[in-house]
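User: Please run a holo structure prediction.
Assistant: Happy to. Please share the sequence and the ligand.
User: Here you go; the ligand is iron/sulfur cluster.
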Amino acid sequence: MTANLLDFDLEGLAAFCAQLGEKRFRAVQLFRWIHQRGARDFDQMTDLAKSLRDKLRGCARIEGLPVITQQESADGTIKWLFDVRDGNAVEAVFIPEDDRGTLCVSSQAGCAVGCRFCSTGHQGFSRNLTTGEILAQLWFAEHALRDRRKSSERVISNVVMMGMGEPLQNYGALVPALRAMLDDHGYGLSRRRVTVSTSGVVPMMDRLAQDCPVALAVSLHAPNDPLRDNLVPLNRKYPLAELLDACNRYLQHAPRDFITFEYCMLDGVNDQPEHARQLVDLVRHHGGHGVSCKLNLIPFNPFPASGLTRSPNTRVAAFAKLLSDAGIVTTVRKTRGDDIDAACGQLAGDVRDRTRVGERIAQQRTVILKQVPAAAAAKEG
Ligand code: SAH
Ligand code: SF4
């Protein structure tokens, strides 16, 4: 089996080239051909000696992911469904804005965390993506978009690891992919423009701070442990106090001086004034000095199996106002691409559930979330 060169960051590629008896600058040339110019074929690499190209052809390949479908929204959002074999498929979404182009990238086929409000979570977990499969989403999207625009200018300026999967449960594959995104010989993205979103895998947050500190988004969704245990099952392992401590440790290394907390607004579940007050208290006073953060409220994107509904706009606005009035920078995420099911949490791809997480959630659905009143939850918490 030949090596897929999309599986390497620059250091990995340099090590691979060293095994072939090639110097580091050859790895740099190769890396630039692949990531900056979108080469898929060694014959395109005209400044590499023919003997090297022949050698590479014998032991290496540049293999992206087959595209199953491409859908385009009225607002310009584009969603690709990629085949990752064995009946699994993952999605990536491009979101164009005036001043930036953001790609939302998947890290796993499915997700084992099993959050109630997430369509990926409901599908269960199949497997981790490889570094090559994570990077292939960016490699493909960037070059497909350039071809479309008939331009060699960079299109994607921001990457958010907010597609399918929990990136910090696929740490080994994630880090080299992030490094290739940041590398000046790769995509040259700034650390502030690459965001890892996590449901709160505390030990891996600490490792990321050391290995590859990029912008961090933490999916909070609840201001107290009983409610968060219910919405984000990982909270039972890493409860809020530990999670917020980890956020403060991360901030010592982060490229930005705040953490983005994501909060999905679920009708009657976590959207009451009492929740907002608890949230203010939590982020203001945790550990004595609070956590430097911004709040991003995400109106829930419904899908039938969830049994949940989106908070009405007025309630989202009232919640946002309570936070803003308390001095917390709060934004409400605009929904993009919902006509093609490309909005947050709607990415379902196609997953062969091997862990039965999906089944478990389906069974638990009978537990009515609305029965966890904020006040009672606060007392327990
Ligand atoms: N596993 C990571 C990253 C992927 S999910 C995480 O959970 O952070 C990206 C964001 O979309 C998370 O904040 C997630 O909570 C949110 N999300 C999931 N399902 C959603 C839904 N149905 N509507 C709105 N946001 C959702
Ligand atoms: Fe996994 Fe994130 Fe979905 Fe939770 S919200 S199930 S962690 S992808």
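The pocket of iron/sulfur cluster (ligand 2) is lined by residues 111, 113-115, 118, 120-121, 165-166, 199, 219 (CB under 6 Å).
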